[in-house]
Amino acid sequence: MRRGELPQLLLAGVCLLALPLAIRAAASRHPAATLKPSYLPALEGPRERGPFDADRLPALARLDPAWVVIGDSMAGSRIDPALLTQRTGGRTAPLLYAGSGPAWWYLVFKNWVIPSGVHPRAVLVFFRDTNLTNVLFRIDASWALDTAALDREDELNGVVARRRGASFYRIREDVERLYGAEQARRAVEPVVTEWPARAMFPSKRARAGFMQQLNERFGLSHLRPMDAADMQATEDREADFDAYVDESILPLLLRDAGRAGLRLVLVRVQRRPVGGRPPYQSPALRRYVSKLAAYVEARGAVFFDDTGDPRQTLDWYEDGDHLSHEGRRRYTEAFAERLLRRVP
Amino acid sequence: MIFHSLDFLVFFAAVLAIYWRLGRRGQNVLLLIASYFFYGYVHPWFLILIATSTVIDYASARGMERRPECRRMFMAASIASNFGMLGFFKYFNFFADNVHAVLGAAGIAVGMPVLRVLLPVGISFYTFQAMSYTVDVFRGELRARRSLLDVAVFISFFPHLVAGPIQRASYLLPQVEAERRFSIPRAASGFYLALWGYFKKLVIADNVGVIANKVFALQDPSFEVLWAGVFAFAIQIYADFSAYTDIARGTSRWLGFELTENFDHPYLARDPADFWRRWNISLSTWFRDYVYIPLGGSRAGEARWARNVLVTFLLSGLWHGASWNYVLWGLYHGVLLVLTRAPGVRSLFFIPAGDGKKGSDPRFGDLVRIPGMFVLTLVGWLLFRETELSAIVRDLRLSPFHSAPFERQAGLYLFLLAFGYSIPLWAQSLWVELNRGEPERPPGWGGAIVRAAACGAAFAAILVLRSRTSLDFIYFQF
After folding, report:
1. Active-site residue flag, B320
2. Tally of domains in chain A
3. Which of B180, B206, B231 is at the close of a domain?
4. Which of B5, B10, B226, B463 to mutate to test binding with chain A, by most A CBs within 10 Å of its CB?
């Protein structure tokens, strides 16, 4: 070994750990320094968060609903709250957010419905296929999550950490906090991603216009249709109930409903029919659904599966798995009948 | 397990903490356990495949030595098991799809079975590595090993298990069998190499990868946007794959091993032959030694040579993936290589009368040859990245003369963005190329301080500039 090799390596190690502390000093001057720690540290670093929507609690209490509907656009395009109220004789409270996922549905139930003190006849949660056991589905919809999350969501974070295999997220969190890395990223990211636009368009207005046009250029309408085989393969990987149930919000949802004495109705919506028939379900998905139904019913919840309902034909649908206006009316009427039979 | 996860860092620290307290045999037992843990971390059933491959290749090699009269049979068993596994998991659906398409075109409707199973990561790498052992024993270039443990460690050595570089048995096995001593200079160089690898992966590859993915998700790209995306992909695949190699080589040094180089600044290649001396060197030399030379190499005239080159590159393309675009990519490079032997084309590449190998003095011609070869490489990456043949045809028909002004601006923006991220990569390549042949001097304290500062800057960049979208290493899928 040459003389000085070990000290030089140690110097490199010290510099590696110490120099990035300058980030913290630099970032402290930036407005991003005030970022709050995330309630999902297994997923992300500190960030600016939207406010918790506390108004929902008194609003729910005032409405005193018989039915609370939780879900995304699948529920929104299927349930007409006024019509459901009219057909069942009980008021309906829709708690919906387009583009939301199971994490938001769970938070809404835990942080809005239960604390509001209401006792509806049932809380209806609408979902597609494997949503309930895939906590990562739309977990990045932070604009929705923020409205229903408290400052700490340890249980949800634990589920996310297990699902992501992020067992050592606390180390990452500590490192990020030590160096103020997230704050620095918030400050640096716009500079790094916009420098070509700054060089090309000195005017702020022209630059903003270009960036907006660029975002639209990469919008959904310009993207290739997703490969059906890939989608199926992805879905089949998700359709392993035993593997994922303990890494999902489902046990928490059922446990909290039991503790609060609330009845849950979990509604699996039918995806878009193909060729005049209900959509194809792989053997793995069929096994998954039967296990899901047995699991939730064993824990006191009601399970509805729309798939295969002969009335839900293609003419009810508008785009993708969404129903049309007329389809929504017909769905709500049929749903009200079925609901009253199962939840008298 | 993936290198850029905290799980790996904790795992590696735990292995190191035990490793250097053990004797050679204990170290090998630990390496085998660690390698199998690493490989089976997400999907434990993958271990059945690698263990099966190991046992069959070990037994085949032993059989060849014990019963030389049956060595062909043992070689066939090794080839059949390795290619059988590779064929089943990697090529079954490709084969079924194509049979279905051909029969369908002939008016025969047949329902072909579809294999719904994950492709085991790294299977192409470790089956090729395992086969290099049995082939070398078959050829009498290597003696069969008595220790199953040593052979198992050679095949499964975790730093390079899932994405190479593919190591020859004659190179790595002696290291597995030798006493290893911890060396500060080796550990130091491994540390710098692995850190550079992490920087390339997290800061360069993942960021430009997002650009490439967005462009290749478009159904209506313009000429400018498409080629900016191809440029981004070129940077991504080099930064990503060479990062894996650097981390593999760096971590191996901490365990007392030296793995071979896999890249030598390929985007500064001057012609197709030079490119293949610099890109994925371990795979190119594997195909050279086990396919091209056995086919006859350049020994039997120009026509046979051209055929051998094309067959070798076609197989190399197919090795990358079960899809026609990879075959096309391989053939494209084969054709380029064949064409550069044609006298008229040689002058286009400014190839001198000699072999034009790297390391020659920079000449004026290089200013044309290097960018020219880079453009040809980009065309290859388009074939590599586009999985649909119809999309390739559409892309190649795009014209720069029909784009709207916004498309030109968008293409320029994306190109500059990708280029900005790739500056450290180009700077390193140019530095190495310009100093090639210079004697390596040990850095004094001045150099050590600069290097230490670079380490701090690299870590700071990883913390602040790493992409929010973490992408898998591209070569995992092969």
Report:
1. yes
2. 1
3. B180
4. B463
